[in-house]
Amino acid sequence: MSEQGSIRPVDTYLADFLARLEGGVSPGIYRLFISLGQALGRQDSCIRLDAGLAEEVARLSIVSSDGSQPLILDGERLYLHKYYRFECEVAEQLRTRNEPLVTDKTLIAKALATRFPAQPDTDWQAVAAWLALTRKLVVITGGPGTGKTTTVSKILETIMETAAHGGEQAPLIQLTAPTGKAAMRLSEGLRRHSSAYNIPTEVTTIHRLLGRRADGASWRHDASNPLRAELLIVDEASMIDLALMKRLLSALRPDCRLILLGDPEQLPSVDTGNVLMDICKESPPFSEELAAEIQTCLGYTTPASLSSHGLQNAVCQLQKSYRFSASSGLGQMAGQIRAGQLPQSNGAVRVEPLQALTGQLASGLAAFYDAYFHALQAGASLQELLSLFDQQRILTTMREGSLGVRLLNELIEDQAARRGLKRPGQLAWHGRPVMIRRNDYHQQLFNGDTGICITTGNSGDYAAAFPEPQGDYRTVLMSRLPAHETCFAMTIHKSQGSEFDRVMLIVPDAESEQSASLLTRELLYTGLTRARDSAIIYANTETLETAISRYDRRFSGLTERLK
Are 44 and 272 in contact (CB under 8 A)? Predict the structure, then answer.
């Protein structure tokens, strides 16, 4: 056990509460309770104890190993009861689903052969599709541009084709993602895929799918009222925290098939846990039986092992990037960051010292949105504005501070006022991009949803237009929006699930121990890979070195439970 970081009031509150429940504890145990609070603040689900301390903790009346007390001691790991229960339920749900389906493998192999032409090397998209069509659970991972959406579209086509061939009804398929932006991206990607089959393209957020009610505490779908889905496809799984994953899995019927998609190298979820990484980090090669099946049916050789891991045969990593070639600038830099190497400027990405931006901060920020501002001045349509705005984004590591989201947006809005697009002090103005900061279940608006403020006609009212996954948009009066903010600039965390043609990535020097702890390899990788075409990174070398040297690794017992 180690104590890391400063002690927050909530850590002391938790320690005091647990000490009162126990009826008094030693100073050492009190410090342990503080450490547990700190660990939860770091989004760990538990803490590790040495053997001697574990023996002392086991004697406390509020500690049990059978789930009957507020604290759970599971070997060397100490949990709050709810996180122990969440881990156990997630592991059980995943392990139970990891089994083969009864299918016509000859028919599936024939259908896949028309969609995945034979390759000299193993086509991991075809392998992933095979798993998804012949097994109840598959986790498809891969970096940006590795073809996760393309693979899903071909999986869906094959499901429709094989069902039609057998004169059967296709299974009821639902698609979901953690955020509105991620849902929209998946929906758009599926619609772009030309298909002779009517594959489903409607994607909802997980909160909408599960039907979180307006009170924010209850849900329409759970174990007692499961989803009707016979196949659930979940995108951007790295963003799903432990509690939400537990809730999602609990709402599935026992016979529901599950496909999880995501990139475990990205930032983990905002809340407790790192479920996708825990699933992937010790997943073994395929069984010898499955490897032989893939060789026979697809003609590809895959690694095999004799492991008895609980998720063996469930995880497939896509390894070829179709967006970034090995020689592309963005692909090269993403690889450098993953390998712990200091990123260097290349044809697609410029790395500049922070002073290059701060010396002309306001004008430099505004210049990044020149095309958008010109479109506003020219009276562009709403669809044009939505498209133009989503072509670029300024990303930063912080909300507050001299280069935090709040100040950057203020500076850009000041530049908009200089161009006559808004009056000084005007909060709602035509063209202002907004991001929702708090879930509103009445309006069906969720944290991270982005839209554009527009005039509503002669009344002088303003509304926000939010793009929908189906390609249209809906408007909500600004006066009815939940907490929101301008979003010319946004944090890297908020950008997850989004892609932009161009990205400006600002990585300020750490101003405190807390801000320094946020600088990680995953943060840089996530920010950079939001860009499709080009990026500029403003950061000092020492700050980049600090970030590259740090991992965002969360402590949990989920990986062990999945074995």
Answer: yes
| Under 8 Å between Cβ of 178 and 247 | no
C-alpha angle 230-189-281 in degrees, rounded to nearest 5: 65
Residues contacting residue 327 through CB under 8 Å, at least 6 positions apart: none
Q: How many CB atoms lie within 10 A of CB 157?
A: 21
174: β partners:
232
**pLDDT under 70: residue ranges of the chain:** 1-5, 194, 214, 216, 324-327, 458, 469-470, 511-515
Residues 6 or more apart in contact with residue 231 via CB below 8 angstroms:
159, 171, 172, 173, 174, 256, 257, 258, 259
Is 197 buried (19+), middle (13-18) or exposed (0-12) by CB count in 10 A?
A: middle
Q: Of 248, 246, 247, 309, which Cα lies nearest the Cα of 90? A: 246
The pLDDT value given to residue 3: 45
State CA 363 to chain mean position distance: 32
SS3 at position 82? helix
Q: How far apart are CA 109 and CA 73, in angstroms?
A: 48
Entry pTM: 0.89
pLDDT score at 308: 83
pLDDT of residue 469: 67
The two tokens of residue 27 are 């100073």
Residue 206: C-alpha distances to residues 169, 178, 445 (Å) = 25, 5, 12
- Closest Cα to residue 449, out of 461, 466, 465, 433? 466
Residue 514: how many other CB atoms lie within 10 Å: 11
Strand-strand pairing, 304-305 and 257-262: unpaired
Q: If you write DSSP's letter for every residue of 127-164 in order, what string do you get?
A: HHHHHHHHBSEEEEE--TTS-HHHHHHHHHHHHHHHHH
> Within 135-274, where are the H helices?
148-165, 180-192, 206-210, 242-250
Residue 45 and residue 43: Cα distance in Å, rounded? 6
* Helix, strand, or coil (residue 367): helix
CB 37 within 8 A of CB 14: yes
pLDDT, residue 1, reads 46
Report pLDDT for 331. 85
Residue 304, number of CB atoms within 10 A of its CB: 18
pLDDT (tens digit per residue) in 210-255: 998 767 678 999 999 999 999 999 999 999 999 999 999 999 999 9
Alpha-helical (H) ranges within 284-369 are 288-298, 329-338, 355-358, 361-368
Contact (CB, 8 A) for 341 and 334: no
